[in-house]
Amino acid sequence: MNIPQSSFPRVVIIGGGFAGLAAAKGLEKSELQVVLIDKHNYHTFQPLLYQVATGGLEPDSIAFPLRKLFNDLDNFYFRLAEVVKINPDEKVIKTTIGDVDYDELIIATGSTTNFFGNSQIQKHVMEMKSIPQSLNIRSLILENFEEALLTSSIQERNALMNFVIVGGGPTGVELAGALAEMKKGILPKDYPDLDIRQMQINIIQSSDCLLKGMSAEASEKAEDFLISLGVNIWKNLRVLEYDGKIVKTNGTDHFRAETVIWAAGVQGELIEGLDTNCIVERGSRIKVNEYNQVLNYENIYAIGDVAFLASDKNPNGLPMMAQPALQQGKMVAKNILAKLSNKPQKPFVYKDKGSMATIGRNKAVVDLPHWKFQGVFAWFVWMFVHLLSLVGFRNKIIVFFNWLYNYIRFDRENRLIIRPFKRVLKK
Amino acid sequence: MNIPQSSFPRVVIIGGGFAGLAAAKGLEKSELQVVLIDKHNYHTFQPLLYQVATGGLEPDSIAFPLRKLFNDLDNFYFRLAEVVKINPDEKVIKTTIGDVDYDELIIATGSTTNFFGNSQIQKHVMEMKSIPQSLNIRSLILENFEEALLTSSIQERNALMNFVIVGGGPTGVELAGALAEMKKGILPKDYPDLDIRQMQINIIQSSDCLLKGMSAEASEKAEDFLISLGVNIWKNLRVLEYDGKIVKTNGTDHFRAETVIWAAGVQGELIEGLDTNCIVERGSRIKVNEYNQVLNYENIYAIGDVAFLASDKNPNGLPMMAQPALQQGKMVAKNILAKLSNKPQKPFVYKDKGSMATIGRNKAVVDLPHWKFQGVFAWFVWMFVHLLSLVGFRNKIIVFFNWLYNYIRFDRENRLIIRPFKRVLKK
Question: In terms of C-beta distances under 8 Å and separation of at least 24 residues, what long-range contacts does B186-191 make, across chains too?
Answer without folding.
Answer: B186/B55, B186/B410, B186/B411, B186/B412, B186/B415, B187/B145, B189/A67, B189/A68, B189/A71, B189/A72, B190/A65, B190/A67, B190/A68, B190/A71, B190/B145, B190/B415, B191/A67, B191/B145, B191/B148, B191/B149
